[in-house]
Amino acid sequence: VGSEMCIRDRLKTPLVKTRAKGNVSYKGKTVGADLIPILGPATAGSRASLNLMQALGAPLTELPEVTVSR
User: Fold this and answer.
1) Residue 3 confidence (pLDDT)
2) Number of Cβ atoms within 10 Å of the Cβ of 28
3) Cβ contact 48:68 at 8 Å
4) What is the arithmetic mean of pLDDT over 23-39?
5) CA 21, 49, 18: angle at the middle one, nearest 5?
6) What is the pLDDT of residues 34-47, one digit of tens each?
7) How far apart are CA 48 and CA 50, in angstroms?
8) Helices and strands in the chain, H and E counts
9) First CA to last CA across the chain, in angstroms?
């Protein structure tokens, strides 16, 4: 899809209260993503879609730390 955000680039996270567009970064690479709210404290983990993890080049067998921004 090039530089356009793919609808499958999703991050379910307690960091947002309403659905929003944002950016997720990992080791210098940033990808646009839909940020989807889930219940839990802000310190709770987030769930990234497989497509988002692949777009970031993040390992699928680890728990990589990503940066989320709006």
Assistant:
1) 47
2) 7
3) no
4) 97
5) 35
6) 999 999 998 899 99
7) 6
8) 1, 5
9) 21
